[in-house]
Structure formats: structure tokens, C-alpha cells
Amino acid sequence: MCGIIGYTGKNDAKEIMLDALELLEYRGYDSAGIALLGEEGTRIYKRAGRVKDLRDLCAKEDPKGCCGIGHTRWATHGGVCDENAHPHRFGRITLIHNGIIENYRELTEKYGLEGKLASETDSEVVAAVLERFYDGDPYSAIRRTVLKLKGTFALAILFDDQPGKIFAVRNVSPIVAAATKDGAILSSDVAAIVPFTTDYFVMPEFHVVCLSADGIEMFDLSGDKAQIDWLKVDWDVSRSSKGGYPFFMEKEIMEQPQVIEETILPRIKDGKPDFSEEGIPDQILSDCKRICVIACGTAMHAGLVGKSLIQAMIGIHVDVVMASEFMYNDPIVDKETLVIAISQSGETIDTLEALKFARKCGSPSISIVNVKGASIARASEYVIYTNAGPEIAVASTKAYTTQLAVLYLITARMAMARGLWSEQELADYVKELSRVPRVMEEVLSQKEEIHRLAGTILNAKDVFMIGRGLDYSILLEGSLKLKEVSYIHSEAYASGELKHGTIALITEDTPVVAVVTQDKLKSKELSNIREVQSRGARVLLLIKENEVLEDDERFANVFRLPVMADAFMVMPASVVLQFIAYFVSLDKGLDVDKPRNLAKVVTVE
Ligand code: M6R
User: Fold this and answer.
1) Domain 3-233 carries which CATH code?
2) One fold for both 3-233 and 239-442?
3) pLDDT at 590
4) Does 81 participate in catalysis according to the annotation?
5) What residue ranges do the domains of the chain occupy?
6) 449 phi and psi, to 5 degrees?
7) Which stretches of 237-348 are DSSP H helices?
8) What confidence tier does 233 reach under pLDDT thresholds 50, 70, 90?
9) How far apart are the CA of 437 and the centre of ligand 1, in A?
């Protein structure tokens, strides 16, 4: 979704912004633009296409200026064309916007803007309203405008007669800001700030920030100066580079043993899971009668694994709800329901809104978030950060497995808090969890074998992925990965459901990926595999390395997974499925990190 950058200081703002927009490309976008406020007034360069096209456009004139704003647009209102790209200008106002202004039509009518706007966007309407209210006092114009807006917005604004200054205000859509050595910077995303500094802050909603070469000032909407709460990024710039890999997705898959270790180890004290750093009281884990996980996409799939673990090991009911559907099903959450919101970015709007609703209903809440200080982290009562570092590839990999790592820890702490496990049971569980990084390394070392296996589905039009129970949950994620990056239609199917219709679609042209990792499900899963093989399907099987396959001549393509306790087999199996998707995309020559139409951060409903 839209990326925002703003820089003011002593250096060439154009170069800083273009570099930052490249760092923000991963969010997903279709157009890019910058505006420079300099001695020659305000100059705008924008176009549909990639940041490199914008760079070419700027190179022709090489505009100079030390203050500017830049944007990558992911179209919502109005098609993909140069006019709709940001920045937008109306009168003395130039702005960039992330979010959706729901009442832009009413504002267009109210302020007689019909026929006066150059674009079809809701964002330009905000510039026009600001122009209407601007009488030389930017704060007052922003305050009066914001009170008229309905919807979500992160706005960075230049006023023609306020040289060297960038103003910003937001509601829901994020903005982070930081002081640099010689000025100040703001962005939708910490990734663009990391090359300058590790100290930053998340702008509070409905506050106005002013950036200048002298630093940053913040005021609330009544005009009172507000205090800034500084945070520290705990990853370095190298974490945001490809580190020699052709794509971020490969780098991020390979990083998993390290980041899982970094997620688990600080939370194991005296051999026991421990959330004292997060301040999470045991009571919240022991007293809840049920759990409701809210999340989207991959994060929701992590929730499904969590559900299997918690229901099996703790014996309480867990619902996993797609956050985008949460509000449409008359959600039943109350003070006895522990809500767990899972999100890599911490900005997914559906998850954020669902979480806010649950909190209003009195539910205690824990969020599992990767990006520090993100909206979901701040909206929940407690937060457990996954220490995955920046995840740049649109397809989530290391965020998923670190989310799982946190869910394993929560399950164990919950068992402790409820007195369900003996010391020995807890020790065995923690020991197995601590093995995960090494087991993953074992799988990663077989990357070439997985590449060969991926070749067996490279030319498929449709793929089915079958399994039961936990294996099915893993496959839902494996199937999403494949669809996302390879554009092959893939369906994860609970193998027991095949006979209820879908088996009709299985032919010799439909490869089937099957995962068999759970002892109690093995015989049923193998029968289902035989059923699809009888219909001509070629099966790519993932199974534990110690399993004996009676009729192994039927399986030409088998990946043998290192053995863990069944509950943990999700981890090695997931790595294989991630790599299968990656290699198919790579061998198709696709842009693995930036699949078409997808955005890394989904900040609109
Ligand atoms: O940032 P979040 O974890 O809240 O994002 C949720 C989904 O948009 C995300 O997991 C998406 O499904 C990924 N692209 C999947 O790889």
C-alpha cells in the first residue's frame, strides 16, 4: 500500500527520497512521485510505473532542493495514471496521502470543487480543503481540515510559503518520524528511516508534526505542544538488504533459524517460557474461558496452528477469525475471551479494527507483532514482538515461523499458568522447541533437493495440497505461498473433504502436494493419497524421515523431513513449502519479492 517519505535538512532531498521510495517499493505500488520545495518554488515529478521511471524523469531536469515529500501509490480511488499519482497540488498546498477519505464526494460538493480538480483521487480533495482554510497558519488549516475528514489518513504536507518545513497529521494510517544528523525525516515505514538513525517515534493520531532542519515539533489538535515518545529500531541496515541473495524471499527463508532463536531464547528463563519482559500476567492466560485469534492471510494461518496446539494441549476452545470478516459475523467476544491479534506489519487495518472492537467488549488482548510500535501493538493490552527483523518480500516467511514460535511459547506458559503439565513435560516441550532452529538448518541445507522437487509442479495449471489436522493448517499456508508468488492456482484441501466433491478435479495433470507428519493421522492421510494417485495424480510427499512407506514405488517425489515431536513438525514442513513456492516463482522468471497486485502492508479495508 502507499508509501510515504518526507525529508528536510541540508542534503539533496531528491536523492534521499528516491532511495527511500526504493526501500518502500516492497509495500506494493503502481505509481510514484516526489515534490521539492526549494528556491524555485514547489516542483512536482510523478508518474505511473516504477520508482526507476520516476528516477529517469527527475534525471532529465535534476531539480535541487533540501525539503521534499515522496510517495508510492497503490491505487484505490481513480485508475493508475500520472494525474492520479501523488503528490497532489491545489493552490499553495502540496500533499501526499495514505488511506481513504470516505467523505471526499461530500467535501467536493460542499466546497464547490467539481471541475476544479486535476485527478480522480480522494487525496486531492484534502489539498483543496486545506487551501480553503489556509490563512498563513498551517496548524490551524490542518486542524480545521482534519475535523472535516472521515476515513483514514496519513498526510505529509508542504505549504508554498513555509520553506524547509514539512507538516504531517494522521488517523489510523501510520507515520513514523526521526531526527537525522542535519534535519528530519518521516515515513510510513521504519525501513526508510533505518539508513539514517535508529531512534524514531510513531506519530500519535490527531497530532500535527512539523519537521524542519532544526528538528521536530509536535502539537495536539488544540495547539498544545506534545511530548514525543522515542523508540529504538533493533535491526541494522544490513537486515534491509538482500545480502547476496537474488531475492529477499530467499534471504528471509534462510534467516529463519536465527530469527526463531532470537524470538525464543530471550523468553525462556530457567528452562521455562517467560513473558515477564512483556509484563503479561499469568492470570490473563489462566482465567480466560476461550481464545479468539484475529488475523489475516499468513498471520491467520499461524493462528490456525495455534488453535490446534492450544485446543490439544490446554483443552480450551479457540476460534480463528479472518479479521476482514470479523465484524460481519456478529462477533461474540467478552471479558472471558482472550483475544490474540497476529500481524507482521502491525498495521493491517482489518486486524486493527477487529482488535479495537474486542477491546471495547472488554476482552483482554495480546498481540503478536513484528514491527515495533505499530498500531496493533499499541492498540492491544500486551504485545509480544516477533524478533524477525524487517520482512521485505511480500510473501511472508520468517514472520510466519516466528509467529508460530510465539504461539508455542504462549501454549507452554498457559499450561504452566493452569498447572497442567509436570516439570518433566514442560522441560521436554521447551527442549523440543529449542531444537527448531537446528532442525530448520537441516532442511535449509537441502535447498537444491527442494528446488528439484519444485520442478515437478513448475508447469502445472492447478495444484492441490492435501492433509488433515495440523498438516492441513500447514498446507493452507503452503498453498497461499504458491499462489502468491507463482500465480499457479492452488487449493489446500482437508483430505477427508476430497470425496465430497473436489476429487472430481484431480487428473494426471493436477499435481498433489501431500504432507504427512502426524502419527495419529498417518494411515488416513495415506489412504487419501492413494485415492488421488488412483485418479492419475502425481504426488509430491513430505513425510518424516523415519516413516516406512509400504508401497514406496508409488512415490517418485518424496521429501524426508527431520523428525520432531508431532506438534513441532509444522516448522520443518513449512520451510519446504516456502521453498517450493519460491523456486517455482524463480524458475518462472517472476518478480518473486513483488507479486503483481499485492501489497505488503494492507492499510485499507
Ligand atoms: O502484516 P500482516 O501480518 O497483518 O499481514 C497479513 C496479510 O496481509 C499477510 O500475511 C499476507 O497474506 C502475506 N502477503 C502472505 O504472504
Assistant:
1) 3.60.20.10
2) no
3) 96
4) no
5) 3-233, 239-442, 447-585
6) -65, -40
7) 248-254, 256-264, 282-287, 297-313, 323-326
8) confident
9) 23
Q: What is the pLDDT of residues 480-530, one digit of tens each?
A: 999 999 999 999 999 988 888 788 888 888 899 999 999 999 999 999 999
For the question of residue 292 being annotated catalytic, the response is no
- Which DSSP string do the residues of 341-403 spell out, in sequence order? EEESSS--HHHHHHHHHHHHTT--EEEEESSTT-HHHHHSSEEEE-------SSS-SHHHHHH
pLDDT tens profile 81-100 = 999 999 999 999 999 999 99
573: closest CA among 455, 399, 409, 450? 450
What is the per-residue pLDDT for 237? 62
- Fold classification of 239-442 is Rossmann fold (3.40.50)
3-state secondary structure of 331: coil
Show the ligand 1 pocket: residues with CB < 6 angstroms. 296-299, 343-345, 348, 351, 394-396, 480, 484, 602
User: Which atom of ligand 1 sits closest to the CA of residue 376?
Assistant: 4
Considering 251, 372, 544, 600, which one is annotated as catalytic? 600
Query: What mean pLDDT value characterizes the chain?
Result: 93
Look at ligand 1, atom 7, and give the residue with the nearest C-alpha.
Answer: 297
Between the CA of 558 and the centroid of ligand 1 the distance, in Å, is 29
Per CATH, domain 447-585 is 3.40.50.10490: yes
Q: Of 2, 288, 292, 296, which is the active-site residue?
A: 2
| The pLDDT of residue 244 is above 80 | yes
Q: How far away, in angstroms, is 300 Cα from ligand 1 center?
A: 8
More confident residue, 280 or 598: 280
Of 348, 385, 578, 593, best ligand 1 pocket probe by most atoms within 8 Å of the beta carbon: 348
- Ligand 1 centre to CA of 94 (Å) is 32
